[in-house]
Amino acid sequence: MKSNLLKAGVLLFAVSSFLFTSCSENDDSQDVNDTSVELTAEDSRQAAIAQETSDGVYDIVESAYVEQEEEARNTSFFSDCVIITVSSENGITFVTLDFGLGCQLNNGNVLSGKINITYGPVQNGTRTINYSFENFTFNGKGVEGGATIFRERNNAAGNPQSTVNKDIVVSFPSGLTVDVSATREFEWIEGVGTGTWVDNAYLVTGNRTVNASTGFTQYGIITDALRREATCPFFVSGAVEVSRNAGMGILDFGDGTCDNLATLTVNGNEHVIILN
Question: Of 42, 49, 86, 115, which is the most exposed, with the fewest CB atoms less than 10 Å away?
């Protein structure tokens, strides 16, 4: 369902990023490709970049937590320009990731500012993790808000799993702001315990609502679990049902090939979407 094109290396995570776009991150005025039933490519592009950023940030937080608490790694997710500070008080652990004025991670993302992470003790094999931001940017976009993670060391299948409830605002250089509210589950299905991040793979389920300062609201629910691989900036398979007002479409990420294409189907018409 997707063309066999090369993809840039990662998100995400983005997951990561995510959804549908046919232009670069820094161009917020791309022409609309599909105006049917109010589900447009421009709206989808904005939602895509915001979701990609949101998932990319989650990848950072999860990697920091795993490296501190669950798995000693021979190959760290973090480059030397990140200053990681860890302290504890009354059973609460505080982790600060300081990216300074600019720092490139080992997966290629460029960050600045700080992410603040807190969590308490493990209770019945689970832990609650919170994170927030301080003057933080992700690939040139401002990020505010935060999220709560319910972390299970072993789910019913024996895999680590995180349920993430987040409300994150992404600010573009143009002045556009996009609020991403989401509940998503990330199941870590490959690469557990190998001592490196590059072989990690996840299945992602859940939903999200995107509200943009331009006035549109778009809802998405994952109908076929999305597969995310640490070395790929895009989901490699799975499907999302997206809707705005009366319009509805299905975004299909394909058969597992790592490329930058997805297929958006609206009213039986297919549109090839080029991801960031």
Answer: 86
Does this model's pTM top 0.85? My answer is no
31-64 pLDDT, tens digit each: 333 333 466 667 776 787 788 789 889 999 999 9
pLDDT digits (tens, 9 = 90+) for 157-203: 999 999 999 999 999 999 999 999 999 999 999 999 999 999 999 99
DSSP state of 121: -
Residue bearing tokens 């950072």? 60
The mean per-residue pLDDT over the stretch 66-92 comes to 93
Distance CA 76, CA 197 (A): 7
User: What is the 8-class DSSP label of residue 123?
Assistant: B
Q: Give the H or E element holding residue 57.
A: helix 41-65
The tokens describing 167, both together, are 């409300």
List Cα–Cα distances, 116 to 18, 90, 193, 203, in angstroms.
24, 18, 25, 26
Q: How many residues does the chain have?
A: 276
Can you read off the two tokens belonging to residue 262? Answer: 């997805």
Query: What pLDDT sits at residue 199?
Result: 94
Angle at CA 11, nearest 5°, toward 82 and 199? 90
DSSP element (H, E) containing 42: helix 41-65
The three-point CA angle 234-48-134 to 5° equals: 95
> What are the structure tokens assigned to 14, written together?
């983005």
Question: How far apart are alpha carbons 134 and 114 in whole angstroms?
Answer: 5
Asked if the model's pLDDT at residue 206 lies above 90, the reply is yes
DSSP secondary structure code for residue 67 in this structure: I
* Residue 217, C-beta contacts closer than 8 angstroms, at least 6 positions apart: 209, 210, 211, 244
